[in-house]
Amino acid sequence: MDKRNIGSDFDDFLRDEGILEEADAVATKRVIAYQIAQEMEKANISQSELARRMNTSRSSVERLLDPANLSVTLVTLERAASAVGKRLKVQLTA
User: How far apart are CA 26 and CA 70, in angstroms?
Assistant: First the structure.
C-alpha cells in the first residue's frame, strides 16, 4: 500500500478553516500549563503555595493551569515559571 501523503496537511486544513492561530495558541497554552503542573508536582508545590509565591489568588492559578483558558498573559506565565524555579522562553519560528 502506498503511504504517501494525499492532499494537504493539518495546518493547511486549519488555515483554510481560519482557526490555525487559535489552534496554535491553545496548543501552546496546554503545553505550558502541563509543564508548570509537572514542575509543581516535582517540587511538591500546591496550587495555594504557587498562588502565594506568585502573589495572586488560588483561582488565578486554577485559570493558569486550565489548558483551555487562553486569557492568561505572558506576564502571568512568566511569574508562574519563576515561582517553580524556571524561566519562560518565547520565540518566533518559521
Answer: 7
